[in-house]
Structures
1.
Amino acid sequence: MANDVLASEYGMLDLKDADHAHADHLEMYVRGRLESRYISVVEDHLLKCGLCRADFFNCIGLHLIRGALGKTKSDRPERRSEPRFEIEDEAICQILNPFSVDRQIVKILDISENGMGILAPYPAPLGSIVQIRAANTIKLGEVRHSSMLGDKGYRIGLRLHVGF
Ligand SMILES: [Zn+2]
């Protein structure tokens, strides 16, 4: 009886597996493309399920590898029309690995081909993977350095992974 209730509850949310997050949902979450009504469901589950967090980190890893591979095939003309980050833009920064549901508003300080510097209210652990989103642009980046910038906050240097 309890299982029936659980199954129908999750069925309404369109999760195929009643016990775990749907792989497609994890994928979409990493890409910043998950429908908003599923976001809190996925987040709640990731916070309590180590198995799904492992799948999630694996999914992030695959994106980073694909991004690195994509970069070797440079000068693809369609890249020019991609939305881009601009200096001084505000962006939303969320640490995906280690997983956190906290988001902070950051300011983009500088941009290079493979990296970006942001000003953030809070520091980020070295080596953590963050998702940066501004307007229609979403990127994954790895934290390479993080240091206090006077009383303004923290300057965080990211290595960006292209290839979404
Ligand atoms: Zn799970």
2.
Amino acid sequence: MADEQSNKQAEAKKSFLAKQKLIESSKTSFQLFSAVLKSASLYPEEHPILRAAAEKLQSNTEELLKDRNEVAFYLMGGELFFETISIPIDQNLSSIIEQFTERDIGGIVFKPEITAMEFIRFAGMMNKEKDLFAELISAHERMAKEGIAHITLHRAILVDKQMGGAIKAEREKASDIFTDAINSLKEVVQAVYLNKASNMRKVTSVIQTMVDYVLDDKDSLIGLTNIKMHDEYTFAHCVNTAILAVSLGTYLSLDKPQLAALGVAALMHDIGKMNIPPEILNKPDKLTEEEWKTVQQHPVEGALLLSNVRDISKLAMVVAFEHHQHGMNGYPAIEGEHKRHPFSQIISLADSYEAMTSSRVYYTNRIPPDKAIRILLNNRGITSSPALLQSFINMIGIFPVGTLLKLDTDEVGLVMHQTLDLMRPRVLILTKFDGSEKETGELTSLVETTGGKYKRSVSGIIDPNMAKIDVKRYFD
Ligand SMILES: [Fe+2]
Ligand SMILES: [Fe+2]
């Protein structure tokens, strides 16, 4: 039994590391492609610098092609994907993504036996003949004539036109905090796996920046928690939980060092999940009893993992252990009365809300925020103390920042701030619900009245993925 458990853990560790490696090498491949595009705009075809860049790209692509029939990159809703894996976009990649967006290219596929020369020729075409890409058929014909037989392009079906702008804005502080937090968490996980010393100083500094930002303008970070992260669900979940916990902490007037400790503990709360095999973690169907037992191990595993991390506070361990200690269904089971640390209660509440409202494999559709709040209210006193829950609701509102609302005027409003009336936030009017009108950019409060009646009221919540509205760009 113990053997089986450690085998499973070894498997999970192996697949985690393999996936990180694949993310790295596919990202490198795209970066090299971007370097070739840049060099091709500066140097003639025969130039050694351009040649060297293309050869590097060719050999990297060949490496990736060893285990697959094609190397495919896609751009969707402002994100870059290699196959189905989301690749983090940094500043280096923003110009190539802009180039793709301008040409309406949503996907590029490299086939086996592609040569360095094909990359160079294609880069030349991309740089010089922008209009050629207006018609994909003629672009492919031209490519064939130029001997580019191993590259295919796809139209940007789902690409948001605003994406270029959104990616530019990605450099902005709020997104950086999100990305930095994910990366620093990943580093800790990797260090734990490789038995290396982890860099807690970096984690602390990321969280301190997060705390400063929340103290300054909590709404825009909460807005960012709406970003979906696909494959990297667990990491995104931990960062979102940290943002929500720190926001609740500021609402409760904790001081800065306390907020930082709370943020670090929240970021680490699910670290024990890294030991759960991904097939279980990502299983869409109901878990078997055996699998559920494995999942229930994660608080204990987490506390144990953290006990090996140098420079981490004891509090983070306590929170990892206690964050599912609520009510009758809480785990791990403890005999007798157990009073949880207040930070565990804050993080546990942020955790439950985040898990319910984020889209992930367990649910085809995420639970809208107002429903999630209702579920929490139904369980008040069991999963969280009524007073703490009330503070959370006051802080986040019934319709949290970043929620898309259907209004009774047939407009779509994006929640930007809370007002004193929890049912009537301040919204940015985006479009008519039938999509017939463009964003008006009008910021208005649902508290506003005319002739004694409310001008606008909420009639429902819209799933941003369904509406294909890139909510994130409004918070950058
Ligand atoms: Fe958990
Ligand atoms: Fe969690």
3.
Amino acid sequence: MLLKNPKRDEKQLCLKGAVQINHSSFFVYEDKDGRKFLKTGGDEKLHKSIVQKMINLNPHIARILRRFHIKPLIDTKTLNELTCGHMNETCNIAIGVYSLLSGDIKERVNPASLKEASMLHDLGKVLIPSKILNKPAKLNVKERKIMNIHSTLGYELLKTQGVKPEVLNLIKYHHQNLQHSGYPVLPAENTSSDLGVQIISIADKYSALRESRVYRRRLSRTEALLILYREVREGKIMPAVYNALFKYAEMYDN
Ligand SMILES: [Fe+2]
Ligand SMILES: [Fe+2]
């Protein structure tokens, strides 16, 4: 049962996943009695308390933050922007790409997991210092290392929330590529999620290229597709996934 405005004790809530309704992303929360309700990223107080709870539940998160000398500050403004913009758009593109793949390839991906993972993929950015996240210039090596832990942090935050392992895996490896030269390092035996990771990854990149950033303008559809085509030639992106994105962009991204 989904409730819109339940009376809630924020300390008792779990973030169980995400859904998209009418092309808008919502987080799915569950209270201690198993009642579910939906929220966007806009409720700062709620999100701070829930992310804090996730940190408390998983001591590994504090260890990662300490290793990178990051203070555990929760940036819910970023979370709100991500939910309304980039994560929602990544989900739209990922589902569009999935729907344009041929039948035999499609069978290897669970669209519900793909959808949920794409809506949550950058959740870990709530713990990345905003001076790095919003730096109006190229990141230096140290800052890049910190930025790159956001996918692992997202995975660790959600690990204690009852999110499906398949979804967690897609979140953790959404910056991986076909050559496994992305981050974090993919265990040698873990290739089963390659296709799902490829779809989220290409949707993530295309969405980011089509948005303006503090350090660059928004790229055109052709410019974005050309950049990603280079990655096909480098062996990082599956041609079938790229071709589906190409079709998606021609049909829906004018
Ligand atoms: Fe990311
Ligand atoms: Fe992203």
